[in-house]
Each structure stands twice: as structure tokens, then as C-alpha cells.
Specification:
Two copies of one chain form a homodimer. Chain A is an alpha/beta fold. Chain A has four helices and five strands, in the order ββαβαβαβα. Chain A has one domain: Transcription Regulator spoIIAA, CATH 3.30.750.24. Chain A has a five-stranded mixed β-sheet with strand order 1-2-3-4-5, sandwiched between helices. Chains A, B: InterPro entries: Bact_StressResp_Reg, STAS_dom, STAS_dom_sf.
Chain lengths: 137, 137
């Protein structure tokens, strides 16, 4: 069985999808990612789909599921590297990538996650101890 | 034809090899990498082989060729994510990865490239204009 590798880069997990996703590969990737998020405490998942010629409803659903799982584990998912033709087809097919944020490339995805994570600390964590102190970052 | 995506992260190009490399895919990857190094001016290439069960002489030679091409274009190549079984087989087969540096994972590979690049500036660039001035980094 093919297994998609999950690479850790700083606070981010990077997945580059290059193989055709089977049911089994997709489930394995979801499990691997969930385990790595918990093990590493990463706050971002970047999924690169540069290599994909086609994003059908199966892949779309897989991406949505990964985004939902990551969200529960306090990690933001960004899909990057979508080809122009893929974007056009997605819209034509009426497939909306629910709950998925996109960015042009890995670097912009990293910026997006960094910005989102900062926002989270600024506005959402009002009940954390010590939150009233001045932000020293 | 499968095409292995090349991802740019800061000063580094990242390639995650997941598919079986054919002659054509290997040549395409070498061309893509050489073009991207020139276009981006990146100083490091990280090749992740986590997904590879087998590194035979063909893949070994491809990695060596990529490292040599990158070197000519002033970029350091580091192979990361080698599985224990792959390392054992490589040694047993007597395949030495000529001119290839390895690191445990992507993050260590990045550190290695950053360190090498700093060294280069410290010792090798003796003929560059302004080199006599104090290093301000």
C-alpha cells in the first residue's frame, strides 16, 4: 500500500500528494496526520496538490475530512499548489471545498497559518491563565 | 508521465519522492530542479525519500546526478528521511551515495544547509568584492 509521507517543518506538517488516492491510502493519511498533530503539537497542516491533475469529489471530501480532523486538534489546514485547470474544474463541477483554506504555494500557506495562529492567540484564548498579561511577542 | 513537484520553502527547494522513478521522470526532475535553482537562487535542495522502500543503483545514481548538478549551480543537496532498512541495504549492496549528504529529517537537513551556506561565505568567497569588510550577520 502506498503511504503518503508527512514532513514536519517547524510548526507545520507538510503533505505532498502525488499518488492516486485509494480509500485505504486516504484513511491511512488521515490517521497518520492526526497522530503526527498530536505527537508534535503542530498548529498547521499544508497539503500540496501540485502533482494532481484532477481533484474529484473523493479527493475533495478527503481534504475536507482532513481539515475537520485537524481543526478539532487545533491545527489549521491549508491546501496549496492547485493548478489553474483544477480550480476551473472544481467550480464547474460545483464542488466547494468546505472548510478548506487555500493558498498559492507552500510559502504563502505558511504565512497564512502563522497569521491565523497569531490571531487565535490574540482573540480566542480569553480564558487561559496569564492571558491578561501583555503579549511579549 | 508522473512529475515530481518541487516546493520552495525559503532558501530551499524540497522534493518528496513518492513514485517509482522511471528514466523519464528522473530526467524531468533533474531539469525541473536545475531550472528552479536558477530561477529562485535557492542554495539548498532537500530530497525526502521517506516513501521509498528501495533505493537501488538507479535511484542512487539519480540522487548523485542531482547533487552534482545542484553543486555546479551553487546549491547543496541533502537527502533526508532514509528508512533504516534502506540504509542497511545500501551498505550491503556496496552502493555509496557519492557526493550526497544525508540528514535524519527535513528540519535537520535545513539546519545542515544553513550551516554549510554560512561556512561557504566565511571561507570560500575570498575573491568577492567587499569581502574584507566585517561580516555583519
Amino acid at each position: 500500500m502506498e503511504r503518503v509521507p508527512v514532513l514536519k517543518i517547524g510548526d507545520i506538517l507538510l503533505v505532498s500528494i502525488q499518488v492516486d488516492m485509494s480509500d485505504q491510502t486516504a484513511v491511512q493519511l488521515q490517521e497518520d496526520l492526526a497522530e503526527r498533530i498530536v505527537a508534535t503539537g503542530c498548529h498547521g497542516v499544508i497539503i500540496d496538490i501540485t502533482a494532481l491533475d484532477i481533484v474529484d469529489s473523493f479527493v475533495g471530501r478527503m481534504l475536507s475530512t482532513i481539515a475537520s480532523i485537524s481543526k478539532v486538534l487545533d491545527a489549521e489546514t491549508v491546501v496549496v499548489g492547485m493548478r489553474p485547470a483544477v480550480a476551473i474544474t472544481l467550480v464547474e463541477l460545483g464542488l466547494s471545498l468546505n472548510g478548506i483554506r487555500t493558498a498559492l504555494n507552500v510559502e504563502r500557506g505558511m504565512e497564512l497559518i502563522a497569521a491565523t495562529h497569531d490571531d487565535d492567540y490574540g482573540y480566542d484564548d480569553i480564558d487561559e491563565p496569564g492571558d491578561q498579561s501583555t503579549d511579549t511577542r
